[in-house]
Every structure is written in structure tokens, then in C-alpha cells.
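Figure 2 data, in text form.
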Amino acid sequence: MYTPFLMCGYAAALILMLFGFRGVRRSTPDLPGSRQLNWFILCALFGVLLIGLRPWVPALLSIVVSNFLLFAGGLFLYLATAKILERNSRLFPWPAGICVLALPPFVWFTYIHDEVLARLLIHAVVLGSIFITTSVMLFRGQRDPEIRQPARACAWLLILATALQGAWCLFESRLGPHATNFIHPDLINVGFSYLSMLLGLATVIGLLWLALTVHRLDLRKIAQTDSLTGLLNRRAFEEILRRELLRNDRSGGSMGIMLIDLDYFKKVNDSMGHFAGDDVLQRISQVLRDGTRPSDVLARYGGEEFVVLLRSVGIEEARSAAERIRMQIATLSGLPGSVNLTASIGVAVSQRKETATEFLFRSDEALYRSKREGRNLVSVYRESEDELDAEESVSSRLS
């Protein structure tokens, strides 16, 4: 077996991957980590090409430069992982420093004392350090259950690549002075080479899978989030509400909804402009975050309307929560133009076998009761005993 043939085969695979990867980047230009993965492929491609040219080019290129291109590729894998998982690459100086420290001994064992095993050991230590650091990030970076599988797959591929490098060094050390000639390697070393190449390619594919998964989750989040306030939008809220109603029907629990409408908000936009109105909406969304529990679901329902899903509450608990929010809004200071803002709130509590539309309709009825009775009120929808009057209001004014 001849080394140039091995390297040319791997280079051909990298070139095909490079073209395929460019297609992915064109269809998804904002794919996280794509730039770093592209640089990894380029470093690996030029590195193996220089190794393949070892019989015809000086050792500086075919040994030193080629190996350090492979080291640089490992660093780009680390940076790609940090970018995909949105992690701080604060550990980057550590593997990068190992690459710098490896240069003098690598040159020594190339020019002063030609030792294949020593170079192979340095190669294994440098890449192993980078791979282990990256795999730790992958194991710790499982922020969402949906990215757990691709993250773990990539981490285990890197661990296997590290173990393979160690096994290769161990095998070479057993040969002693009969260490493999890299121009004409034996079948065992050919196997080690191909396994290393396959693990490298598989890791890139795994990271691409991870990047696409993260990108899909980000798109889903964007589709479900109101861009101004950062709260859920109406569509996402209604999907959650339908799921919660089904769960409550099975468990026999109850939950509440408070539908919040800012009083005379149009005057804010008309008198101070839409930028001031946007600032007010952002301040109100923060009031809702501060005034609700982590288990509650918040959404901007449309325009100046907000909605809050209160899990596991009864009528009085829902009314108390709504009253607290109403008072926080009424006493909010520092708004643009020193405007005094109030809110009307309608509250309803879930009923058995009720649809999301019916539930929202009852909270909407309570909201309009608050508006009809003078605004800056909390009204709770109740079913009367004779069912002639659909609602009984529990209203309170800011004292």
C-alpha cells in the first residue's frame, strides 16, 4: 500500500464533502458553526494532500506543516462546537497553547532526531487534548432534549478518535525500531489511518446534524415568540392552552386565564409615537414576568393585549393574581412622557371538557365587563346558578 493513494482517497472524500457542505450553507446561510466547519474541511484537505506528497516535497511541508494543518482543523472543530451550542470558547487558549508548545519538539523529532513514534505521540496528544475538550463541551451543552442525541453522538465520536490515536501509538511502540514506514505502511497502519479518517468525516457530519437541529429549534422559537416583547405569540399560546386543557381533563385539575388590555393605549402611540409605545409594551412584559410564577405561561395576544395562563389555580387565586398585576401596572413609574398607565383584566377558570376557544371567549367576556364598568378593573367570569346571566363580576378599583 502506498501513502499517496491513501491520502488521495481521503482528499477526494473531503472535496465531495466540501461541495456538499457549500450547498448546505447556501440553503441555510445562517447555520451556526458552518464557517468553522468549512475551515476544518479545508485544513484537513490541505493537510492530507501534503502528507500524500511526502515523497516529493520537503519534510517541512509534508510532516510539520501537514500535521499542524490537522491540528488547526481540530481547533476549528472546537470553535464550531462552541458556536453551535452558543458556549463561551474560554478554553480555546488551552488547546491552542498545546499546539504552539508542540511545535519545537515536533521540529526536533523531524530534523534533529528523526523519530516517527515521537511525532505520532505528539500528534495523538495534541489532537486528543482538543477532542476531549470538545467532547466535554458537547456533553455539557445539552440545553434541550432534542439536541441531546446529536451532541452525544459527536462527543462519543471524538472520544473514539482519541482512543484510536492512543491505540495507534501503543501499536507503534511495540514495533520498536521496526516502526512503520509511512511511505509504504502495512495493512494494520492502513486500517488505523482509514479509521481515523472515517471518524473525522463522521464527526463533521455529526456536527452538521447538531447545527441543523439547533437551527431548527431556533426557527421554532422565532415562530413562537413575539419579536418586540420576547413573550410567546398568540399562536404558540393557543397551542399550549389546548395541550393544558387536555391534561387538566385527564387529571381533574383547574387553571386560570387572565386577559389584559392596556387602557387608552392608542393615546400613547398618537401623542408620543410608536417607539414610545413599543417601550411601554416592553415595560409591561417585564412587569408580567416579575409578577407571575415560573410555571405560568405569558404571551402577547395582539396589539396592547396580553394573556397569562395560570396553572393549578382556582377562582380566588386567579383573581388575586390579576389584582396584583393590575396594581403593578397602575403604579408603574418611569414610562415615556411620565404617562400613567392602567389595565383592564378579565379572568376565567377552566371547566371540564372545555375547548380553548370557549375558555378564551369567557375571559374575553370578563375583560369587556371591566371596560364597560370604567376600566382599571379586574372582572372574574362566573356561571350563575340559573344560567341566565353568564357572568358575575368581582371588580375592584385602585384606591
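Caption note: The chain is about 65% helix and 10% strand.
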